[in-house]
Structures
1.
Amino acid sequence: MKILVGYKGVNVGKDLIEIAARHALAFDGQVIVVTSMIGGSNTDPTEIKVAEDNLAEIQSFFKEKNIPCEIHLLVRGMEPGEDIVMFANENTVDEIIIGVRSRSKVGKLLFGSTSQVVILQADCPVVSVK
Amino acid sequence: MKILVGYKGVNVGKDLIEIAARHALAFDGQVIVVTSMIGGSNTDPTEIKVAEDNLAEIQSFFKEKNIPCEIHLLVRGMEPGEDIVMFANENTVDEIIIGVRSRSKVGKLLFGSTSQVVILQADCPVVSVK
């Protein structure tokens, strides 16, 4: 079983990676953690560096639990939702896990467009974690 | 592990219950299948009968696989999304599985409001199945 984790690149969503670890252990699966950034003038190089560091930290977390883990930073000019779905299809993953914690400026919980695209367009089940 | 399946009451979403069975087996869990209807003048009594029959059929499916399964038809005047979240909290479930296959009249895939409410308001991970 291949589990793709869509990771935003900022902070390390602890709930997200813990759920992913639980699923990987239960299904004897492997984890692929992906951060998607548009790139070009849309993406600040320091954001890319932060995402790389966070991905490396996440990979260590899984390695410590003996869970096979690949990390990928995708910078190919695509919106993150479509990019994650395309990557999932290219790699025939069985499940996608994403975080859906987005808040508006006044603190209202919002449904991020990336999450919506992934949930509606993915060919496999999508696990949403707050 | 308690897995709540939010089931609309019409058709038997085969993908939905197969994913639920796979999760229940992997996590050695039990399944609670819930259909929520508002009731009163909002709900046609024949819809309730159809939902009851479908729930019974779903229960047989899990029983055949030796997966513990409860079924509940909730008719308590609440919108289905809020009802499912409240029931999940009352029963301290660990995961909710829902179907997100809704189409507009012109065939466009839509994000149903019930799914959105469940994904945003649930206290546990939510698995969306198309």
2.
Amino acid sequence: MYLYSTLRTYLEDASSAKPTPGGGSIAAAAGALGMSMACMAANFTVGKKKFKAVEGEVRKQLDACMKARDDLLRLMDEDTRAYAEVSAAYGMPKETPEEKTARTAAIQAALVVAMDAPLKAVRVCRDALRATAALVEIANPNLISDVGVAALLGEAALRAAKLNVEINLHGLKDKNLVEKTRAEIDEAAVEWKTHAAAVMTRVVKGVGGTV
Amino acid sequence: MYLYSTLRTYLEDASSAKPTPGGGSIAAAAGALGMSMACMAANFTVGKKKFKAVEGEVRKQLDACMKARDDLLRLMDEDTRAYAEVSAAYGMPKETPEEKTARTAAIQAALVVAMDAPLKAVRVCRDALRATAALVEIANPNLISDVGVAALLGEAALRAAKLNVEINLHGLKDKNLVEKTRAEIDEAAVEWKTHAAAVMTRVVKGVGGTV
């Protein structure tokens, strides 16, 4: 869908008065951008004599970051496809009581599906931040600011994906699902804060800047 | 350069063991992604009877967000071109004293140029966050989570661009330029925090979530 579009086209469509691509897709794309910087930092570390002692661990984190990047790129398009269903359900006729019932059921079903892509993105970003926190300790320090960019965008992507889960929860009537999902994203948020703060403390020290 | 590449190609190149595209380019791209969501929210507001009273102001902020998005897309490529110069300077020979002097001078000149793209990105993101803070008050509230995504990515892009200014400041010997630039980015950071916090308080209230 948009994975093989130009950035220009993707952003033109996202900016327009069309429901998709929307916030969930853009959040996933931003996370993928961030992960590319963690991959670059790892790729400037592996195969270098100086970092031989941590080679195995860096390779492991590189694999995790590449997986996260590619998962997020897929979710960028998955969100766009899923959200189109929500939009279609809201567009259903609502004149007769039967139409109203059918429309409400279709919206509820579509919201559950639409919530899945940003929820998966929250999980992937949480894993990505774990990998980034491991990398900041062992990757080539010349790339420290790039690891920082990975953490900043991973954090923003997670928060943005979480917002897109929450907006769906807002409309959902299944109380159990709402509670379970809210607990999961709130837990991910706690973990993200710990990892992002740890990475940024290290990065800011490395570049001699301010947070 | 990458503006008309596919996202896949841009991210493959960014992930690889090549110096560019690096953190400054990725920061600008993430900011552009965020701004597309502010544009979408504005585009779902203008021309609607319900929001007639704020039409002029929304159009003004839409123009500001589109300008920010396009400026950031240009900076994405400008950073890549500028950073290639730094990389070339570091690769200069350093055997003789003359070579060392020439290399140091070339690095210093390239760092000043390379700092310019992320510094411009900091300024654009600051303006973008101002426009987003104005929009959150008046845009179609159905798009509130998208305005939130714009603020989250605008904030992360500003911080990531700032990090890329700081890594260049780290290597710069011109004390006056270092001081002047640091004062500017620190001031932008203070302003960003105010705007981002204001937007997110409003957004989180709107979606019934947690920050």
